[in-house]
Structure formats: structure tokens, C-alpha cells
UniProtKB/TrEMBL annotation:
<protein>
    <submittedName>
        <fullName>Septal ring lytic transglycosylase RlpA family protein</fullName>
    </submittedName>
</protein>
<dbReference type="InterPro" id="IPR009009">
    <property type="entry name" value="RlpA-like_DPBB"/>
</dbReference>
<dbReference type="Pfam" id="PF03330">
    <property type="entry name" value="DPBB_1"/>
</dbReference>
<dbReference type="InterPro" id="IPR036908">
    <property type="entry name" value="RlpA-like_sf"/>
</dbReference>
<dbReference type="InterPro" id="IPR012997">
    <property type="entry name" value="RplA"/>
</dbReference>
<comment type="similarity">
    <text>Belongs to the RlpA family.</text>
</comment>
<feature type="domain" description="RlpA-like protein double-psi beta-barrel">
    <location>
        <begin position="57"/>
        <end position="143"/>
    </location>
</feature>
Length: 150
């Protein structure tokens, strides 16, 4: 009987306050695009502006012995990050790297200077290199380098 006395005022308050309660509708489900539907080309906007820097550049990757060392920009090197080394581009420059054979794309940031081999144009971290490399390779590959503009 005591429980009923405590619960009764709660029901009374809820009964008289039901007009003031706001029911939040659930999020609308996204509409599926059917095969016959057309998409307006005006609504699609490019996400980034790209400027071709070098076509068919030779790329290699860092050895694991550099993990934990400081780069030329002062950042700590990690072979699992998406970074690279370039001789001339400023630190912090975002690059789009596309494998010439595979057409796979990876976005990296310039954090170091190099490579110090005259025939190579860019050094990628092992993680970035693995994303664009073909199944069989000899330690260096050809890539297209594009600078991402803001």
C-alpha cells in the first residue's frame, strides 16, 4: 500500500503534463539511390584543389631504424604515420600520392628532408608506401605527386 502512495503522484503529474512533453522524432533514414535515378552534377563539389607537382616520380620508403628519431621539422618519426620527406616542399605541405601502376591514393604530410639519393624524389613512411605499392615491387615505385591546396 505504501508503494502505491508514492507512485500515484507520479502518474498524476505525468497525466497532466503529457501536452508539455516533447517527443523527439528519430533521425530520418537516408534515401537509397535507385539505378534509374540521376544525380545533379551541380550539387557535387570538389573536396580539394590539387596542383600536379611531379608525374611519375620515384618513391622509396624509410627503414625502421629511423623510428623514434627527430625529423628535420622537429617531429618524432613514426613509420606508421602518413608522412613523407621531400627536398624542397615546405614542412606541413599536404600531398596526394597516387601509385602509377595501382592507381591507389594516399595523403601524406611533409615532415622531413630527403631523400638523399639523386634519382629519388620522395621518401614515404612504410605505412604510406604499403598503401600505394603493387604486389611485387623492388623497394621503390613510380608515383604521381600532387599538392593539396586549401
Amino acid at each position: 500500500m505504501k508503494k502505491f502512495i508514492y507512485i500515484l503522484p507520479l502518474f498524476v503529474v505525468l497525466f497532466f503534463q503529457k501536452e508539455n512533453l516533447k517527443i523527439i522524432p528519430s533521425q530520418e533514414k537516408p534515401k537509397l539511390v535507385k539505378a534509374g535515378d540521376t544525380i545533379k552534377k551541380d550539387t557535387i563539389k570538389p573536396v580539394e584543389k590539387l596542383e600536379m607537382y611531379h608525374k611519375s616520380a620515384h618513391a622509396s620508403y624509410y627503414a625502421n631504424k629511423f623510428n623514434g628519431r627527430r625529423t628535420a621539422s622537429g617531429a618524432k618519426f613514426n613509420n606508421n604515420d602518413m608522412t613523407c620527406a621531400h627536398r624542397k616542399l615546405p614542412f606541413g605541405t599536404k600531398l596526394k600520392i597516387t601509385g602509377v601502376k595501382t592507381k591507389r591514393v594516399v595523403y601524406v604530410t611533409v615532415t622531413d628532408r630527403g631523400p638523399f639519393h639523386k634519382n629519388r624524389h620522395i621518401d614515404l613512411t612504410k605505412a604510406a608506401f604499403d598503401k600505394v605499392k603493387p604486389l611485387s615491387y623492388g623497394g621503390h615505385i613510380d608515383v604521381d605527386i600532387e599538392v593539396v591546396k586549401k
